[in-house]
Design a protein that fits this description.
heterodimer, A: 34 residues, alpha+beta, 29% strand, B: alpha+beta, OB fold (Dihydrolipoamide Acetyltransferase, E2P), five-stranded mixed β-barrel, two-stranded antiparallel sheet, 3 helices, 7 strands, 44% strand
């Protein structure tokens, strides 16, 4: 049982940072807008 | 243009400032957003992009050609344009460290009228490394 819990925690530590990776914000400057 | 951009996948919100021509795009929390598609959507709406900046989190990886890239998702990564900041991140390639960077995908050259070639992949020029986790 403890082994399973430890495995889940380990898996969470591996997966969590990847899940947080993302494009957070995009800013553009455009020309020719009326 | 706002509607064009708002329809793109992964876009949560679009704010357009008519005075200075700035467009702020907030991606969805867990959505996949493609900067190349956004550039295309802007051109399709009849205006041209002078500059495109981004704040992104991801892992530093080496791609098949040996160039370093920022991996946002398993199937989405952007090659880094070589500069001092990207060289400083090279040692993190393959490590689990997540970096948050501010970078530039596109800047129109002075006096250049021709739009960018859409077949050329975007390269991310890192302007600032904000965080390493």
């Amino acid at each position: 049982m403890n082994k399973k819990v430890a495995l889940l925690i380990l898996l969470g530590l591996i997966v969590a940072p990847v899940a947080q990776a993302q494009i957070k914000h995009i800013e553009m400057r455009v020309e020719g807008m009326t | 243009m706002k509607q064009h951009l708002g329809r793109q996948s992964g876009v949560q919100n679009v704010e357009v400032n008519l005075i200075d021509g700035k467009v702020q795009i907030t991606p969805k929390e867990d959505g996949h957003i493609d900067p190349l598609q956004l550039l295309k959507a802007v051109y399709d709406s009849g205006v041209s992009v002078a500059e495109m900046d981004v704040i992104a989190r991801g892992k530093i990886v080496k791609d098949s050609s040996g160039s370093i890239a920022l991996q946002i998702e398993p199937n989405q990564s952007f090659q880094l344009a070589p500069n001092d900041l990207s060289s400083g991140l090279e040692s993190l390639a393959g490590s689990p460290t997540i970096v948050t960077v501010r970078g530039q995908f596109y800047k129109k050259a002075e006096g250049k009228k021709k739009k960018r070639d859409a077949s050329v992949p975007l390269k991310l020029l890192i302007l600032e490394v904000q965080k390493k986790e």
